[in-house]
Amino acid sequence: MIGNDIVDLQLANKQSNWQRSGWLQKIFTVTEQKSILFSENPSQLVWRFWSMKEAAYKAHQSYIKHYPKYAPWDYECQPGGEVIVNNHLYDTQTEVTKEYVYSIAQRINTTNYCSTIFKKELDLKLQLKQILAQKLKVDISSVSIKKDTYQIPRLYINNKKEDIPISLTHHGKYSAFAVTL
Amino acid sequence: MTKEELLPKLKAIIEPYVQNQDGLKKLNENTDFIKDLEINSANLVDVILDVEDEFGIEIDNEAMEKMLTVKASIEIIKAKLSEK
Fold this sequence. Notes:
Chain A has 181 residues and is an alpha+beta fold. Chain A has five helices and eleven strands; from the N terminus they run βααααβββββαβββββ. Chain B has 84 residues and is mostly helical.
């Protein structure tokens, strides 16, 4: 299972005031809050932890198959980059630039995944379909992506559900997908 | 407070965070904050903090977990108000 999440830092700092009273406490564990407050770049760490949690949430939800739930404190970021939720461990990899923070979470850390970040507005689903059609050697018209009853995106080839984990993310100027192949 | 009294108050709280104005026009009990209103998931915390301030209640983790729709939010606000 795979999950990814991108944060447009410019937009995030406009949309959210993480210094608002009570904000950190609603999202982060006590350990995470301490790391943030003692960090040299607290704002960057807020969004790093946030994207790790979101990416792990998507991977975990896709594995457990539960209805959407808002429980960011359940996802505990570890110093080594892992995220633990109810005794399930997810490995995450995070890329931090001045413009964005991007995390990928995987249940089992593999290298056989493909992910791309786009730095402009575009049809993300179409991009993912093109890549999948190319990799799976099928016609793009046979590829579709539909959300299941739990709001999890699933891949279909010729209307048959495939066991290929996918994850899409979009925030501000940026969008990205990750797929296990 | 009745459901009918709570709905406009909740609408006023969520309005600044809504990114899909069409969804706001069609706001009803079944409206989903993320799917229908495209509220950024980090802003859901602001919705919860604003609800706490507006109604003088505390939304604990268990309640927060469910606050993804208008219906669930109204139920939670009603329950927390009755505990006061």
